[in-house]
Design goal:
The longest helix is centred in the C-terminal third of the chain and has 37 residues. The protein is an alpha+beta fold. A hairpin with a 7-residue loop joins strand 9 and strand 10. It is about 50% helix and about 20% strand.
C-alpha cells in the first residue's frame, strides 16, 4: 500500500508519495519504491501510481519510461489527450506481452482467492453467531462444515445478486457475453472448486459452481472494486492549450480476452470557480481526518450507532404505546437524514471550505510543505499503530508549473 497526494491551485501542482512497497503476504515492506514519474521529457505532465506497482507482471516503471522515450518531443493540447495516449500505448505496445497462459492464470488466481475468502468469511460468521448465542456449537466437524457451507452459499448469492443489479459494465466488455466466458473457462473453474471441496472436506451443491462462474464473469466485466489488484494511475499537469492545471485518475485492471479492464475516475480542473483541489490516494484516512475534522471510520460508526439506536427506540415506543413500527419509521428516518446533513454542512463550513480556500492562496513552497506533511502524518499513524508499516520511507515530491514544467523537489533516486 501507499500514501500519495496531489494538491493543485492556479499556480502549480504538487505530487507527493511515500516509498513503501509491500511484498508477498503483506508482512514484508521495503521503502524503495518509485511512484512518481515524469510522463514526458519536454512537457509539463507528471504521472503517479498507487496500489499495484506491476501490471500483468510488468513493472509500471518500465511501461512509463518506455512510453516516455517513445513520444519524446510530442506534446498534447490537453491532459485528457495525454491520458488517452498513454492508455493507447499500453493497449497497442504492451499487451503483446500478455499471453493466453497468463489470462488462464488470472482466472485460476481469482478462483482461489474468492474460494478462500468465502470459506474464511463463512467460518467467521458462524463463529460470531455461536459467540452471540444465536446458534449452539456444532456437535461434530461434519455439522460445522455443513453450517459453513450454508453461509458460503448465502454470501455468494448475495454478492452475485448485488453485482447483477449494479449493471456497471466496463466499456470494453459491453459486448462480452457470459456464455463466451463460461464456454472457455468453466472447466478450469469447476476443477478448482472440486479440488477445494475435496481439500476442505466441504459439500457444496452444483448450483454453487454455476453461481461462482457468474461471480467471476461479473468480477471481470463489471467495475473495479477497491479490493482488487488494480493499479491506480494519476496524470496531472498542463496541456499545451491549458493555462490552469488539471488532474485525471483512473483504475487499470487486467488485460483479458483482448480487452482492457479500465475504469475512469475523476477529472479535476482548476478554473476561476474551482481554485484548489486536494486529492489523497490509497491510504487516505489521515488526510481525510485532517481536512474533514473527523476520522471517516468514526463518522461512519456514528451514523451506524444513530441508526441502530433509532431502530431500538422505534421498537420500544411501538411496544409501549401499542403503535405500528411502520408508522413511526418515517419520522426517525427523516431525523437521521437531518442529522447527517447538519453534520455534513458543519464539516464543510468549519473544516473543508476554509482549508481549500487557504490552499488556493498558497505559494509553491507552501504547497510542497503541506503535501509532504500530509504523507508524513499517514506514515506516523502507521508507525504508532499495531498495523504493518505500509506507509514509510523517503517522501518523493514533484512540482509542476506552466512555466518551468516538471521539477523534482525531493527524489530518493537523485540523492
Amino acid at each position: 500500500m501507499t500514501a500519495e497526494i496531489s494538491i493543485l491551485n492556479k499556480t502549480a501542482i504538487v505530487l507527493a508519495g511515500d516509498s513503501a512497497v509491500t511484498i508477498g503476504d503483506g508482512k514484508k515492506v521495503y521503502n524503495t519504491a518509485n511512484k512518481i514519474f515524469k510522463l514526458t521529457n519536454n512537457g509539463t505532465v507528471g504521472i503517479m501510481i498507487y496500489n499495484q506497482a506491476n501490471w500483468m507482471g510488468i513493472p509500471l516503471e518500465t511501461i512509463i519510461k518506455t512510453y516516455n522515450r517513445q513520444i519524446d518531443e510530442i506534446s498534447y493540447a490537453t491532459i485528457e489527450e495525454y491520458k488517452e495516449s498513454f492508455v493507447t500505448y499500453i493497449r497497442n505496445s504492451i499487451t503483446k506481452y500478455i499471453t493466453a497462459k497468463s489470462q488462464e492464470e488470472l482466472i485460476t488466481a481469482k478462483s482461489h482467492e474468492n474460494m478462500e475468502s468465502f470459506i474464511t468469511l463463512a467460518a467467521e460468521l458462524l463463529e460470531e453467531e455461536i459467540a452471540n448465542g444465536v446458534l449452539p456449537k456444532p456437535i461434530s466437524e461434519a455439522a460445522e462444515l455443513s453450517e459453513i457451507s450454508k453461509r458460503m452459499i448465502r454470501l455468494l448469492n448475495g454478492i452475485v445478486d448485488d453485482r447483477k443489479k449494479s449493471k456497471r459494465t466496463l466499456l470494453e466488455y459491453k459486448t462480452y457475453r457470459f456464455n463466451d466466458f463460461k464456454t472457455k473457462y468453466s472447466r478450469t473453474i469447476r476443477t478448482i472448486i472440486d479440488n477445494f471441496k475435496k481439500d476442505n472436506k466441504i459439500i457444496l451443491p452444483p448450483t454453487f459452481t454455476t453461481k461462482f462462474i457468474h461471480l467471476l464473469y461479473y468480477e471481470i466485466t463489471y467495475s473495479i472494486n477497491e479490493y482488487e489488484n488494480y493499479t491506480g494511475i494519476v496524470i496531472a499537469g498542463f496541456g499545451d492549450d491549458e493555462i490552469f492545471p488539471k488532474i485525471i485518475d483512473f483504475k487499470l485492471g487486467e488485460f483479458f480476452e483482448n480487452k482492457l479492464r479500465l475504469e475512469n475516475g475523476k477529472i479535476g480542473e482548476i478554473d476561476n470557480n474551482k481554485v484548489a483541489i486536494i486529492r489523497p490516494y490509497a491510504q487516505r484516512d489521515m488526510v481525510d481526518t485532517f481536512f474533514q475534522g473527523i476520522a471517516p471510520n468514526l463518522l461512519s460508526r456514528l451514523s451506524y450507532i444513530i441508526d441502530f439506536e433509532f431502530k431500538k427506540l422505534i421498537e420500544d415506543i411501538a411496544k409501549k404505546f401499542s403503535l405500528k413500527e411502520k408508522n413511526l419509521s418515517p419520522f426517525f428516518e427523516k431525523a437521521h437524514q437531518s442529522i447527517g446533513k447538519k453534520l455534513y454542512d458543519f464539516r464543510n463550513r468549519k473544516h473543508v471550505d476554509p482549508i481549500v480556500s487557504t490552499v488556493s492562496y498558497l505559494n509553491k513552497e507552501g504547497l510542497i510543505e503541506l503535501a509532504e506533511s500530509l504523507v508524513n502524518i499517514t506514515s506516523l499513524k502507521r508507525k504508532t499503530s499495531s498495523d504493518v508499516e505500509t506507509v514509510g520511507g523517503p517522501v518523493d515530491i514533484a512540482l509542476i508549473t506552466k512555466g518551468d514544467g516538471f521539477r523534482w523537489i525531493k527524489n530518493k533516486a537523485l540523492n
